[in-house]
Amino acid sequence: MKTTSPSKISPATSASSPNSSRPAILIDGAGKTYGDVEAVRPISLTIEPGETVALLGPSGSGKTTLLSMMAGELEPSQGSIHLRGKNLADLHPGRELSREVGMIHQQYDLVPNLSSLQNVLAGRLGDWGLLKSVISLVWPQDRQVGLTALEQVGVVDRARVRAGFLSGGEQQRIAVARLLVQDPAIIIADEPVSSLDPARAEEVMGILSESARQAGKTLVASVHSTDVARTYFGRLIGLRNGGREFDLPSHLVTDDQLDALYTLEGLQDE
Predict the structure, then answer these.
(1) pTM, whole model, 2 decimals?
(2) Is 254 exposed, middle or buried (0-12, 13-18, 19+ CB in 10 A)?
(3) Burial (CB count within 10 angstroms: exposed 0-12, middle 13-18, buried 19+), residue 204
(4) Is the CB of residue 30 less than 8 Å from the CB of residue 79?
(5) pLDDT in tens, 164-198
(6) Residues 6+ apart with CB under 8 A from 106
(7) In CATH, what number is assigned to the domain containing residue 169?
(8) Domains contained in the chain, number
(9) How far is the CA of 102 from the CAs of 15, 16, 71, 115, 173, in angstroms?
């Protein structure tokens, strides 16, 4: 599908130029348990700067848990995670963490009563102080940065519209624009197109992957569609029952491997 080539945002401080001598993400035996339930079995993997990686697997396979650990939203029960050479556990919430990693959730996390532009500019909260953040609720700060991001995802005409009045596809684009404004080195996306019809899913995924590619960012996302995964990601990791089933370049993943990944036989309850 053809997408409009976006113009790159130039924020005051950018984290999108990774240190190429270090992995973007280094996971060393990280796992997550809840009581007796092993949501993610200990896993070790390396993701290089600029890689596009899709996590595949049935519901309850551990995709969201693993992504949340990568984004610093969930602490591993064991092992460690490093982002561009920095121990994730040592990164402070706010500016330090937001420069390294940003996450798009399935629910988008938009504020319904705020305009699209204000929601997009929330991506700057990690860099702003409290006063500037409060002022922006009334008079949006760094307007041009936000408008550029909205133009990049094709909804600049919706800048003044409250998020609660937007369609699902438009809300999805706003969430992507907010992450572009945040400008992290690593983009984490949890089912970023799960609520969209196939045509809109392809469009939004194209915008997200192309924006990441042009800015040299690392993109890790969970997706349901194997066609989308093969089209927009260079590497596929299959998860099942909390463990890794395969980790291969997308063109080497076979239909048989995908069928085995999603088969109901032997699948644990969520």
Answers:
(1) 0.83
(2) exposed
(3) buried
(4) yes
(5) 999 888 888 898 888 888 889 999 999 887 767 77
(6) 64, 190, 191, 194, 195
(7) 3.40.50.300
(8) 1
(9) 11, 11, 7, 21, 15
